[in-house]
Amino acid sequence: MKIIKWIKKCPVFLILTVSGLILALTGAIGRFSIYKDYEFHPVKRPFLALVMEGAGKGTAPWEMAGNIGMGADEFPGRLFAMFQGGSDGQSIDGWKEEEKAGEEESAKGISEEAMPEEGIPVEEAAGEETSASMDGEAAGEETPASMDGKAEGEMNALTRSDGGEDAADGIETEERTYEFQTVTEDYFNDAAFIGDSRTVGLFEYGGLEERADFYAKISLTIYNVFSELLGKEEGTGKKITAEEALAQKQYGKVYLMLGINELGTGTTETFMEEYKAVVERIRELQPDAVIFVEGIMKVTADKNAEDPVFNNKNIEEKNAAIAQLADQRTIFYIDVNEVVCDAEGNLNAEYTIDEVHLKAKYYEIWKQFLLEHGIER
């Protein structure tokens, strides 16, 4: 009887207590599945913190349903779909929405309706049409873009000799390299950008959303870049992966920036094995495109000093490896850190909302950097 009376007197306290226990239990259950990549500490960051951080950064508790054969769309938690769109990557890639909103007036941005939960739409904005749709049956068939992709890519890297004869005719030729040059914004009319939350920010605030196609998502990694649904098929509206999108439409340039979320996973060697495989696949699907492999943007001095994983030493190590892929003919390495870092080589603290992501108005610096690093072949 005393317990019942106490419950009647303190219903809110009881609800909070029970809810806390349920969330803590959820964190404990998901510690080695959906929250496995989140930082955990029994005192500083207990199980409840994992759930709260996950909810704020896109990892929803009901994603554990996938581990027992229940799809996320079927789980009752679908009612809270505003948090859907989590990831298998590290938690570093979350957004502080209240801080981001404060910067929106200084950039173009896009409406929330323009970005579905699962990723950025494949369709070009302002009514521009994308390539023809691919049926479900034809999706598995080899497309012209992927046939003999390697051979075509190698031929594209060759130039004519001084006499104007083609290498295919047996005349001696040389492989020409190219230098960066300044271009105008229409340079991006046939460009595709692939990346994590930083590329999402470029889409939202860089002013290129009506020109280029973006296949980007918060917490995207090199390991799931071709498995996540990042766009929609023209006509049918079917959700498709970046790999499927690249198979359907040919681009003149493909920009790739991934790596911040992978810092706590594996080694630089294992990261680069997957990175090279992704670049090779892009080349197969886009034999005529210039591929820009972008250096991972650094973090601030404070973040660098306090974080044993997400620090600039680890970023520089991966960037040095990524740079090795460039041949200055068909693959080019560009590093936006040249314009967003301070004199000490750390991300400029004035440019960031959370020591990792740029404030809305500073994505213009990134865009200008891209305009000054175009390649015309």
Low-confidence stretches: 66-91, 95-102, 105-118, 121-174
What is the makeup of the main sheet?
5 strands, parallel
Strand order of the largest sheet: 2-1-5-6-7
Order of helices and strands: HHHHHEHEEEHEHEHHEHH
Provide the helix percentage.
Answer: 25-40%
- By DSSP (H or I, 4+ residues per run), the number of helices equals 12
Strand fraction equals: 5-15%
What's the mean pLDDT score? 76
Structural class: alpha/beta
Rg for CA atoms: 23 Å
Give the termini distance in whole angstroms.
Answer: 84 Å
Morphology: elongated
The counted number of beta strands is 7
Give a verbal description of the structure.
Helices cover 31% and strands 8% of the residues. The chain has helices spanning 2-9, 11-30, 47-57, 97-101, 149-157, 197-205, 242-248, 268-285, 301-306, 312-323, 337-340, 363-371; strands spanning 191-195, 213-216, 229-232, 239-241, 253-257, 290-294, 331-334. The strands form 2 sheets. It has a 5-stranded parallel beta sheet, with helices on both faces. Strands 3-4 form a two-stranded antiparallel sheet. Helix 8 (268-285) links the parallel strand 5 and strand 6. The radius of gyration is 23 Å and the shape is elongated. Residues 66-91, 95-102, 105-118 and 121-174 have low confidence and may be disordered.
